[in-house]
Design goal:
- The protein is α+β, with helices and mostly antiparallel strands.
- It has one domain (about 5-155): 2,3-Dihydroxybiphenyl 1,2-Dioxygenase, domain 1 (Roll).
- About 25% of the residues lie in helices and about 25% in strands.
- A 4-stranded mixed beta sheet has the order 3-6-5-4, covered by helices on one side. A two-stranded antiparallel sheet has the order 1-2.
- A hairpin with a 3-residue loop joins β5 and β6.
- The longest helix has 11 residues, at about 25-35.
Length: about 160
């Protein structure tokens, strides 16, 4: 997208990730109660159909090529573990969040680890068969933008 796109209103208003959970109650308790995502809406229908929409704050879509995905796994875990899709949640305290989520039923894959991009990241297998990262930013975006390898393709064109 051209850099002047920031001057236009967004074409997309919301990113909503829809996840099927065999154990619905466990998944809701984990993400709403343990992780702390506020319930925005809930609906039910015939045949015990249920859905809850949880507010996850600001959403971004992170697109990584295979080499970047491998590098992130190596940095955060030390081996290749992530499936094609991994969900990441920014938290204020990655260590406390990790402990809380493990107590709520997640399996810790890797403990909180400081990354080269200056965040504290932990990996977990969570309910609804989701592989997740909880991360805490240790520096501002402005501070991180001065680090080697931190920038966009658009930045390189300037």
């Amino acid at each position: 997208m051209p850099h002047d796109a920031a001057d236009r209103p967004p074409a997309v208003r919301q990113l909503r990730l829809v996840v099927e959970a065999e154990d619905y109650e466990s998944a809701v308790a984990f993400f709403r109660d343990a992780l702390g995502l506020p319930e925005q809406a809930a609906f039910s229908g015939d045949g015990d159909a249920r859905v809850v929409i949880l507010d996850a704050g600001r959403a971004t879509l992170e697109i990584a090529n295979p080499a970047q995905k491998r590098m992130i796994d190596d940095v955060e875990v030390g081996r290749q573990v992530a499936p094609r899709i991994r969900v990441a949640f920014e938290v204020d305290d990655a260590r406390a969040a990790t402990a809380r989520l493990v107590a709520a039923g997640a399996e810790e894959i890797a403990p909180p680890t400081v990354t080269p991009w200056q965040s504290l990241n932990a990996r977990l297998d969570a309910p609804a068969d989701l592989h997740i990262t909880v991360f805490q930013e240790l520096r501002t975006l402005e501070e991180r933008s001065t680090l080697d390898g931190f920038g966009t393709d658009g930045d390189r064109e300037r």
